[in-house]
Amino acid sequence: MLTDGFRYGETGPEKTEEIVEMSMRLLNVSGKANMLSRGDLRNEFHRQLSDYPAEILAEHFAKPETLKGLFDLARSFEGQAYASNLLLPNQCPSEQKAVIAVLCDFYGVDRKNII
Predict the structure, then answer these.
(1) Whole-number pLDDT of residue 53
(2) What residues contact residue 61 under an 8 Å CB cut-off, 6+ apart?
(3) Domain locations in the chain?
């Protein structure tokens, strides 16, 4: 469920599919879809969606120990957001570093350069 949530948002895969279908109809009506077939457009959309690394986030946030401390973790990030002194990622508490590392993995950034 978390993977689908990160990949499709709160409206889910059905709503995403509906939006894709509407977009393809608009392309066809406008005459802009002549270079690609409807199937090609749909296949490209699904290929890009499957390449979206939602599993990285879902795997981390599905862990019971992560879920238990999620509210406190969010509050600690919020506290830093409003703090007068900025902490660099390598100076953050280990719980925050874990989230920063997961986000680095998600975005394909080398975590060693950040934390």
Answers:
(1) 87
(2) 2, 67, 70
(3) 1-52, 53-115
Q: In Å, how far are 9, 51, 60, 104 from 107, measured between CA atoms?
A: 17, 12, 14, 5
> Are 42 and 24 spatial neighbours (Cβ–Cβ below 8 Å)?
yes
Alpha-carbon distance of 84 to 111, in angstroms, equals 25
Rounded-to-integer distance, Cα 75 and Cα 81, Å:
10
**Dist CA 97 CA 110 (whole Å):** 13
Enumerate helices (H) and strands (E) in the chain, giving the number of each. Answer: 8, 0
Residue given tokens 């680095």 in the structure block: 104
Per-residue model confidence (pLDDT) at position 34: 61
Task: Give the count of beta carbons closer than 10 Å to the beta carbon of residue 103.
Answer: 15
89 near 100, Cβ under 8 Å? yes
Task: Give 10-residue mean pLDDT values along the chain (115 residues).
Answer: 86 86 77 67 81 89 91 95 94 94 92 92
Can you give the pLDDT at residue 45? 79
